[in-house]
Amino acid sequence: MSSVTGPLSSPAAGDARRNRGLGSRSAAALVFGSSAAVLVVEIVALRLLAPYLGLTLETSTMVIGIALTAIALGSWLGGRLADQVDPRRLIGPSLGVSGAVVALTPAVLRSTAEWAPVLLLIVAGLTILVPGALLSAVTPMVTKLRLTSLAETGTVVGRLSGVGTVGAIVGTVLTGFVLISRLPVSGILIGLGALLMAGSALVGRRARGWTGTPALTLVVVAGGLATVPAPGGCDAETKYHCARVVADPDRDGGHTLVLDGVRHSYVDVDDPAFLKFTYVRALASVADTAFPEGEPITAYHLGGGGLTFPRYLAAARPGTRSLVSEIDGGVVRIDRERFGLRPDSGIDVRTEDGRLGLRRLETDSRDLVVGDAFGGVSVPWHLTTVEAMRDVRRVLDEDGLYAANLIDHGDLAFARAEVATLAETFEHVVLVGEPVDVGSDRAAAPDGGNLVVLASDRPVDLRATQEALDARHVGWRLATGDDLTAWIGDARPLTDDYAPVDQLLQPYDSRGGR
Fold first, then answer.
1. What pLDDT is attached to residue 203?
2. CA dihedral defined by 318, 324, 329, 331, rounded to 10 degrees?
3. For residue 216, what pLDDT is reported?
4. Cα–Cα distance between 257 and 261 in angstroms, integer?
5. How far apart are the C-alpha atoms of 182 and 48, rounded to whole Å?
6. Residues of the chain with pLDDT under 70
7. pTM
8. Within 13 Å, how many C-alpha atoms sit on residue 372's CB side?
9. DSSP state of 510
10. Which of the chain's ends, N or C, has fewer CB atoms near its CB within 10 Å?
11. φ, ψ at 17 (rounded to 5°)
């Protein structure tokens, strides 16, 4: 009987002789690279899907779940196949086919979203599952090739497992901090496809019978060429969005900023007093009545977009100083290059997370705080909580006002929870919206859309605010007091410990805009 610490039995020893062609460095490179590639695909898939499915918790969960399924499936199948077929004949095809699928992904996903949206989820799942499974199969195949003695099993498996984990970490960090900020997502995937194809060619030179590299290389080239005519192109791919600027054919200076397929801002670069979106006119009506006419104020804006409202304040109240926290530096670049933001405009934009920017502000330093930050169609959850609103209250002076834009549909569960949150924090809360949405028209069910909520420790002049809304033809009504309490119902305030914003929001057609 052979010793368990000695060489493998005769058949395995034959495998070992065949496997000497794969050195430890080559094995580590294959495992490292394939593991990194899986995470690159996962992260970039989120960016590709955001314009069509939204940047929500559900979308992120779906992509992560599919990627993990691919890893599990690939690891299992790779191990099974490695025991039945010479792994050297499998690694090249796995890299090559995955490279071809990855390179085609941008064109396929965008075309499907535009021309066959009912199939989008299926196609999206396959573009993550197929390359993820093939790449994940590489590790057990390489492990099989490196196992030459039972005495080294733990060392080999442990080493390659660690190398794969490091590769996944590097792929994650490299994509999130470097690649997405410097390259379009289509370029990232096509480049990755080319790298995988190169790896396939190198491995294929050692394998017998694998001659598919040239054909798959043509597929990668086709994927690159297909991204040119494919729909869904962006004027700019920022860290967070696919951004487009759409000119208004009816106004020479009018432009709409579209982020991930959703209309975020309308900017008239020649006339900052022209406010096209209804909710912005509502915000302007509130500011007009909350502070003495024409006097400058100090304002802080959570979220910038096209900076429509800060521009309005600067024009309507000369000398106003607005500080804006906008997390997306690419959007800020559009503000400067396309919308003419100047250093002397009175608008200071900081590229930062709104919650962190809020924390840096001095106590009692602002007359007005405006909440207009969105990721897709949802307010980032950490800007909705009681703790965040306490920070807003700290920043406002004793007569200060917080005004926030909300979007919700259906039974308005998120909007009710957010108003309940503000009622927990401020003395006075007023909801502004369509009569059917704020409860003024009790005969109809809520329709949904934009709502503006006001919060302050001083009373809001309801009559003056309503008159200002009517003067701007907004058509909205106010709800406060007992009516607002009834509207909130049993909605639970949001906290840092409990803020299921994405789950509370109701779906709607994002092409309808904000």
1. 84
2. -60
3. 55
4. 10
5. 16
6. 1-21, 206-233, 440-445, 507-514
7. 0.79
8. 25
9. G
10. N
11. -65, -40
